[in-house]
Amino acid sequence: MKVVTTHKNPDFDGFAAAYAFKKLNQDFEIVVSGKLQKNLEEYLRLFEFEYLKENEFNDNIEKLVIVDNSSIERVGENILKHSKKADIVVYDHHPDIKVSSEKLKINNYKIGAITSLFVNEISKRNISLTPEEATLLAIAIYEDTGNFLYNTTTPDDLLAAKFLLEKGANLDVIHEFTTLELNAEQNSLLRELQENLESLYINDYEILVCKAEIEKFIGGLNVITSKLWDFLNADTLIVVTRMGRKTYIVGRTRNPDVNLRKLVEFFNGSGHDRAVSASIENVSVDEVVYKLKGKLPECITPSLRAKDIMSYPVRTILADETIKKAYEIMQITGHGGLPVVEKNRLVGIVTRKAVDKAVKHNLENRPVKSIMNTKLITVNEDDSIQKIREIMLENDIGRIPVLDKNNILVGIITRSDLLRASNSGGRVRFVPKKEDTEDIRQIMLERLPRKLINLLRLLGEYGEELNMPVYVVGGFVRDLLLGIENFDVDIVVEGDGLEYAKYVKDQLNAKMVSYEKFLTASIFFKDGYRIDIATARTEYYERPAELPVVDISTIKKDLYRRDFTINAMAIKLNFGNFGTLYDFFGSRNDLKNGVIRVLHKLSFVEDPTRIIRAVRFEQRFGFRIEDETLELLQKTLEEGYLEKVTGQRIRQELEKILEEKNPLKAIKRLAQLNILNHIFPKTYYTKIMEDKLERLFDFLPFLEEIYGKINKFYCVLRILLEFYDEPTLKKVAAKYGISKKFIDDLKTTEKRISLIKKLIEEEANFSELYKILGKPVSETAAHIGAYLNSNERKYFSEYLQRVFSIKLEKVSGKMVMEKYNLKSSPLIGKIMNELFCIKLDNPEIDEVKELEKLIEKYNGGADK
Fold first, then answer.
1. CB atoms within 10 A of CB 185
2. In which element (H, E) is residue 279 found?
3. Do 276 and 295 contact (CB within 8 A), yes or no?
4. Could you give the angle at the alpha carbon of 248 between the alpha carbons of 242 and 253, nearest 5°?
5. 569, 581 in Cβ contact below 8 A?
6. Which residues contact 648 (CB under 8 A, 6 or more apart)?
7. Residue 472 to residue 532: CA distance in whole angstroms
8. Partners of 667 in the β-ladder
9. What is the pLDDT of residues 670-718, one digit of tens each?
10. What region, left, alpha or beta, does residue 640 occupy, with left being phi > 0 and alpha being psi -120 to 50 degrees?
């Protein structure tokens, strides 16, 4: 017997190389050992390829070919057991190979993927390939060359890929199955780099340097660096790794002020300003790091300093001046805050929020210093924009004073100054100075029920009586303009929303539940209808990704705090303005053009759950996320803000997606934008997963008939978390509040799914399926349904209906013990279970007669 094999637990390159070798040598058999890597296993399950597992043969091997592996220790034990007298030949492509046995005749090639070697030979011999075969071989080449980005890639790899595409290799399938996930060796190197991390501060810029030394060459250092860069959320990362005789440098930066290309040119490296690499022979890692530290200051040039963008002279107020004076200055200048000065020194900051609150409480004659914030956060006039940006973001402040070297106030920088100084300009859709209004009373009369119109008029009249402007806002307004039925009314009041809600409750004889922390209340009417009332408010995010602190504001600021422009419109309800649409942000235009747009650049940073919400609205309405918003979304995602959000809040957003009419579209979009992978770190969305989810969603309506209300989130998680390793699964479960029982049921179903599917395919007796499955929980039923075609689901549906409807009506455990004088024992349970199985297969049986037979069988004719 002649055998071609690869390393244990084969990946695409190992298996595909063996398959390509067999195409060239038909007298060889492919034998694999260990567990196939997940994406390979899914591909081979989808398309049929012949191969043997090492426990499926017992013949002696006369010739053994090993591909993509030069280590005898990584070959399956049964293969080696039958290869004691075999000639062994190796085809590999890893540099600096060390021969692990004298028995091996090693052929080592300088090529990105060993599969490419055999594919080019197939091309020369003009051997035919099916599109499925060409796709298999192409996936291996794409994966092992990192989509042709690894520096081990050669022209021969590209030539092989060209040939395979000509033979029908499917690029969509290649995209679905190609993964740049790290293998065990790469993960080990990644961990070593993490453990050897040093943080340098040069010209206010943080530079992370990681170093490692390993004996042999490992491909994909650029991918390892990129993953580490993302994981650390670093601005600039430099990786220095010695592999064998060579020391490699790979650098990544997001900062235009850091010129990495200039840095690596010193080491004869190349690249562009933000992604570079270099290699040096016979130089130690520590020596390279020492030289890097010496050269880095020359490669960092801050483009702008505080003094270049600050506003000056600064409008200040004296500490002893009145709050009323501060209020007047703010009204005239529009400033949101004023530096407070005493004896020519900066002593504090007074904000509009503090001033407005003091005026409201009739404290306007008190000195400003009584309400100023004395915890000063300042910058120096020579500080870099990078440093200023970080200070503002970390402290969530909208303005920051600038001091000179003598600590004298020389200027002030606002968030707007900082945004104008950035490459991409100012805010997204900046608020216009004049309110845009439109009379939409006719639209309301045409599209809303008369009863609701009357209620809205009453709510406006109550506002008039309390001298409070009242608006209906948010999704209600959006859907009204879209012509979509939505009677969920959200009211915003300029004034005391809780006082207004209490007034409404009393006038309409309704019940009220208040939430004082958020200045909101809900009104419940006798017929079950509900409206929500809120105070017009500004939300201050003290830290990115946390829930906001709420403060009273105007309708304009209230709308500005919202997630997207399409949700940032209001209709005034007061007498004289009833039906007036307020649109400060071009919202209706975005609605007309089908655009999802954030209101400001820090929107996703302040609340990263908006990342998920953007996709939900995009897919619900068939809109598109506007280009700049999409760029902000992806940047926030890459910087790891979504990971900072509590699992509970992310789960709530996902559960809302699952209530949409077509949740699969949104899940697919989450995967396309790499959002899904940030939520579930080892979930890889493929065509196979998509097909499973499609079958699952098709099956859910039937399951709801059987089980009643089911947990769709848990059902979908069964597919998204399938085949996770246990440590990662436990972390995910802890974050998203998933029970231990869910994990246990998931793992049990994974192990049994092949057997269950086989029984369903064969339409086995229900009792056979019951012995394996019993009465499954709804998530397990959904999980199984995801593996079944329509005919199989029909059979499985009949099983579920039967197993939950069949009952033993004439026989009970107590009756058996009393009638047959038996004591309580496992035998009783066994008899009852077997009787249930008999009835499951034949519901019309005579239970008592069948019981007699079982008693005869198990009790040898006990006394009756």
1. 15
2. strand 275-281
3. no
4. 130
5. yes
6. 736, 737
7. 10
8. none
9. 999 999 999 999 999 999 999 999 999 999 999 999 999 999 999 999 9
10. left
